[in-house]
């Protein structure tokens, strides 16, 4: 069977795309909160 026809590969590809989208959206949503922390700490986010 050709790897291109393996059904599980399509499932993994779909799952990976959905997870990337979810993490990207969450990251974008958290930007204002994280930026505020940077500003509050004088540019030191990890303090």
From TrEMBL:
InterPro entries attached to this UniProt entry: RNaseH_sf
UniProt-listed Gene3D superfamilies: Ribonuclease H-like superfamily/Ribonuclease H
Highest taxon, organism lineage: Eukaryota
GO MF, one annotated term: nucleic acid binding
UniProt name for this protein: Tc1-like transposase DDE domain-containing protein
Species this protein is from: Trachymyrmex cornetzi
């Amino acid at each position: 069977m050709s790897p291109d026809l393996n059904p599980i590969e399509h499932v993994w590809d779909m799952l990976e795309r959905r997870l990337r989208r979810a993490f990207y959206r969450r990251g974008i949503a958290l930007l204002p909160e994280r930026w505020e922390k940077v500003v509050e700490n004088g540019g030191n986010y990890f303090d």
